[in-house]
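Figure 6 in text form: structure in, sequence out.
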């Protein structure tokens, strides 16, 4: 990991909800600014998971160096700690070439972690928390407490074996960040900003954003999303993999298993994507230093010029 105490490198960050248009703006910006892109997307890192994660196309990828795409085997879990380590290395490499890296993505946890370091307060995932609670219901509390003793003995010493809320919280943080909650709490008081940065959050009028989400999902299904999921299952990838938590994959798995119709699966993907977009915006609103740019009502080139000014050092 880079030593940010010696020097704080500069990064530009382009964030925003799914389907807002980050990729196209990022690629044009990177070309105009003469730099490279570092993806901050928790699912686009996985190989083979392409259509459902809305990865840049081969043509888009050919126009600019785009890092942290297709670099993780789907059997692996990808944590915040690993993202920061890899992103630090890439940012350092780009910076040594005299460029200001452009970090682009919609995973607020990753962006905040890159700026501030790993922090336990922000590591939250309601679905993961529900799964851990379900494990308690099925297997009993002892199994999860034993797991906590293995991954974070310091936290286990100060948490009662009967305190299910704190046990679940500690395991939730560990699974999301790859580090024990006890370490993160110890570091939280001394952590400072790791980079000098400019952060802009792209947004659109709600109706327009929802139209774009629906259009994207329709496009996914017409360009082979179902076939992609079927191929992944045929290759032996389990529906329980972390990578399968990417938007839409579980809904398509349900369709392929005969649990729902194709139309219902498509509707559920749209609903899940809208909910995810709301959660992303909530994340970014908590980043007080972010500048917001509503893309609605302006020409594409006008927005590019405005972005260049906001992100300039």
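Output sequence:
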């Amino acid at each position: 990991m880079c030593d940010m105490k010696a020097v704080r490198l500069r990064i530009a960050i382009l964030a925003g909800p799914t389907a807002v248009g980050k990729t196209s703006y990022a690629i044009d910006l990177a070309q105009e600014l003469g730099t490279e892109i570092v993806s901050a997307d928790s699912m686009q890192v996985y190989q083979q998971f392409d259509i459902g994660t809305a990865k840049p196309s081969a043509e888009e990828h050919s126009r600019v160096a785009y890092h942290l795409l297709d670099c993780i085997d789907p059997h692996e879990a990808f944590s915040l700690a690993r993202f920061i380590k890899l992103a630090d290395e890439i940012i350092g490499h780009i910076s040594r070439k005299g460029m200001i890296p452009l970090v682009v993505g919609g995973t607020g946890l990753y962006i905040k972690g890159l700026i501030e370091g790993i922090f336990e307060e922000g590591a939250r995932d309601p679905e993961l928390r529900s799964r851990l609670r379900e494990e308690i219901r099925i297997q009993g509390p002892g199994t999860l407490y034993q797991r906590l003793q293995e991954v974070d003995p310091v936290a286990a010493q100060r948490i009662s074996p009967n305190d299910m809320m704190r046990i679940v919280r500690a395991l939730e943080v560990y699974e999301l960040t790859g580090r024990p909650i006890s370490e993160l709490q110890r570091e939280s008081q001394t952590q400072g900003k790791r980079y000098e940065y400019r952060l802009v959050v792209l947004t659109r009028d709600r109706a327009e954003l929802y139209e774009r989400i629906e259009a994207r999902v329709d496009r996914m299904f017409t360009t082979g999303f179902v076939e992609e999921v079927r191929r992944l299952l045929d290759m032996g990838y389990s529906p329980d993999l972390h990578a399968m938590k990417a938007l839409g994959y579980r809904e398509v798995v349900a369709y392929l298993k005969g649990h729902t119709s194709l139309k219902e699966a498509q509707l559920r993907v749209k609903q899940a994507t809208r909910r995810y977009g709301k959660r992303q915006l909530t994340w970014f609103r908590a980043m007080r230093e972010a500048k917001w740019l509503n893309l609605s009502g302006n020409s594409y080139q006008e927005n590019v010029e405005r972005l260049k000014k906001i992100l300039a050092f």
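Caption detail: The chain is about 55% helix and 10% strand.
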